[in-house]
Amino acid sequence: MLYVGLDLSRKRLDWLALDPQGEPTAIGSVAPDRDGLVKLGQRLGDAAVLAVIESMSGARFVHDQLELAGWDVRIADAFKARGLAPLACKTDRIDCQVLAELARRDLVPEIWLPDPQVRAERERSRFRLHLVKHRSSLKNRVHAILFQHGIPSPHRDLFGAGGRCLLARLQLPEPWASTLHASLALIDRLDEQIADCERELRRLGLDHRYIPLLTTLPGVAWVLGYTIAAEIGDIARFPSPRKLVGYTGLTPRVEQSGERDRRGPLRKNGPNYLRWALIEAAHTAGRDPPLPADRRAHARPPRPRPRLQDRRNRDRPPPHGGDLAHAHPRPSLCSGRRLNPRSRMTAH
């Protein structure tokens, strides 16, 4: 058995092999493409190989190609691997040796690797979110152009039928007029692409076992349900619901000091696209507050509004003795306390 540590960069893949006693047996570097990985798979012969590579962009391609060559490749969590072996001096060769040593000692913090079907689902949903992000950026730019020229927008949806008529009648100077027309053309093109993506996601989501349950949540429809299900993947890999909630990254950090809880920022666990999808679902649920008929009966009744007391007829506290020396009594605060008499100067 040989234990190989792999360090991937854009232009090369460094590797180092250790024997069962921990002694280096081979070292080198190859190009991180298909031909280079085939040569690396043939370099060590027929020996059984256990390789470890840190999780990063491109690590899955290296994993798949070396698995075809007969290697046992594992992807390690980069943050946890750095915590197990903190180093003051860090080079590519040292990284390879550290990963190979973790593989030899069976201490690899391995991450869950989705299968090709889950990867395809994530790519479809992430590309839609990518297009939506660009469309929102263009819409914000159009709103900024109108604000810079002092043009109010009387329409709730500036990019609907009424808003488009308003934008067509505008007489803006150059180059803002050209920028506005180009932004509207790109928005229309992105609308078509996003609609095609949503139709495909809706068609593929009919057979997904998680989506019917996710669509029962307020603010989650077929498209967002497909996105959340694709990002979570196999739910059986989480040992407890607490781990699943922590994977979403939406649980804030709580620092307890005495009897008061201070909530910190959101965590950065899990993929960013999952947080985007859940935040979008929360915004959609906030815009549609009414509950369905089956849940409205179990909803908590609204709290009664506090009755405001008429200030003209409210009971005032009796005047102090010092008020008799003034022509008019000094006003009291809303809380009923008197003003500080030491801060006032009166003439004899």
Strand order, main sheet: write it out: 3-2-1-4-5
Principal-axes shape call: elongated
Counting helices, strands and paired strands, the structural category is alpha/beta
Helix fraction, binned, reads: 40-55%
Describe the model.
The model is unreliable at 320-329 and 343-348 (pLDDT under 50). A hairpin with a 4-residue loop joins strand 1 and strand 2. The longest helix is centred in the middle third of the chain and has 33 residues, at 116-148. The relative contact order is 0.07. The strands form two sheets. The chain has a five-stranded mixed beta sheet with strand order 3-2-1-4-5. The protein has helices at 34-43, 59-68, 78-84, 92-104, 116-148, 161-169, 176-204, 211-214, 222-232, 241-248, 272-287, 293-296, and strands at residues 2-8, 13-18, 24-30, 49-54, 72-76, 252-257, 260-266. The chain starts with a strand and ends in a 52-residue tail after the last helix. Helix 5 (116-148) packs antiparallel against helix 7 (176-204), helix 5 (116-148) packs across helix 9 and helix 9 (222-232) packs antiparallel against helix 11. The radius of gyration is 32 Å and the shape is elongated. It is α/β, with parallel strands linked by helices. It contains twelve helices and seven strands.
Provide the fold topology.
Blueprint lengths: L1 E7 L4 E6 L5 E7 L3 H10 L5 E6 L4 H10 L3 E5 L1 H7 L7 H13 L11 H33 L12 H9 L6 H29 L6 H4 L7 H11 L8 H8 L3 E6 L2 E7 L5 H16 L5 H4 L52
Parallel strand pairs: 1-4, 4-5
Antiparallel strand pairs: 1-2, 2-3, 6-7
